[in-house]
From TrEMBL:
Superkingdom to which the source organism belongs: Bacteria
Subcellular location: Cell membrane
InterPro entries to which the protein is assigned, alphabetical: ABC_perm_TupB-like, MetI-like, MetI-like_sf
Listed GO biological process terms: transmembrane transport
Name this protein carries in UniProt: ABC transporter permease
Family affiliation: Belongs to the binding-protein-dependent transport system permease family.
Cross-referenced PROSITE patterns: ABC_TM1
TM ranges: 22-49, 61-85, 97-118, 159-181, 201-225
Species this chain originates from: Aurantimonas marianensis
UniProt keyword annotations, A-Z: Membrane, Transmembrane, Transmembrane helix, Transport
Domain ABC transmembrane type-1: 26-222
GO cellular component, one term: plasma membrane
């Protein structure tokens, strides 16, 4: 118990004193995850909207596949990205393996299906609500996508935050493609695993506390946005 108290006290000290190694790891984690999620949103949101509104052969299979990809095993994603970026792989000439870019690619693959699936659900609900109005205005299904994406921006922010929460907590894929190199690709999750195995529990606890705070903040933001969205929808029904 005394050891835990000592380690916890040291962890708090590292956070409050602004330890440069600690906050360097945190900043790298945020940069990698936010970049991956932003790129995933650029691809996943239009894809989810197209699947929600479009009607084409194979649409049901595409939806099922996207939902299945939400459960991709991170270590498998890491392995595939590793093989693609390795010197013998098709993208080996880019020399991206063991760089933050490789970690961004792995997180992008993991997060895109999540954002696309959540976007599809939100857009289906909005399209069901506004389909008759859009049709009366002569707006085609394809042309209605930007309008619905804008109208559902609160729900889309929820999808973005959910993707970020998934990315920031990832360890399996990023440790395979990043290599956990000090001051290069060492992020919070991989550092926690490494420092725990080395017995440096103070740094691991400090990073764990920050990671938990980020997770709590993301979940609180999702809950707040969800309640706000439902409140706006209720107000719209009441006004109508």
């Amino acid at each position: 118990m005394q050891d835990f108290t000592d380690n916890f006290g040291q962890a708090v000290g590292l956070i409050l004193q602004g330890d440069w190694e600690l906050w360097g790891i945190v900043l790298l984690s945020l940069r990698v995850s936010l970049t991956a999620v932003a790129i995933a949103a650029l691809f996943g949101m239009p894809l989810g909207a197209a699947l929600a509104i479009g009607r084409f052969p194979g649409r049901r299979f595409a939806v099922l596949l996207m939902n299945a990809l939400m459960g991709l095993p991170p270590v498998v994603v890491g392995l595939v990205v590793y093989l693609m970026l390795s010197s013998s792989g098709p993208l080996g000439v880019l020399q991206l393996l063991y760089t933050p870019t490789a970690m961004i690619i792995a997180q992008f693959v993991l997060v895109t299906p999540i954002i696309a699936a959540l976007t599809r659900q939100a857009m289906e609900d909005l399209h069901a609500e506004y389909a008759e109005q859009l049709c009366s205005l002569g707006v085609s299904r394809a042309a209605s996508i930007p309008t619905l994406l804008w109208d559902g921006r609160a729900s889309l922010m929820t999808a973005f935050l959910a993707g970020f929460g998934r990315a920031i907590a990832e360890v399996g894929a990023v440790i395979i493609v990043g290599g956990n190199i000090n001051h290069v690709t060492r992020v919070m999750t991989t550092t926690i695993a490494l420092e725990t195995s080395k017995g440096n529990l103070a740094l691991a606890l400090a990073l764990g506390a920050i990671l938990i705070l980020i997770a709590v903040a993301v979940n609180a933001a999702v809950a707040l946005l969800d309640s706000t969205t439902k409140g706006m929808a209720h107000a719209d029904r009441f006004d109508s």
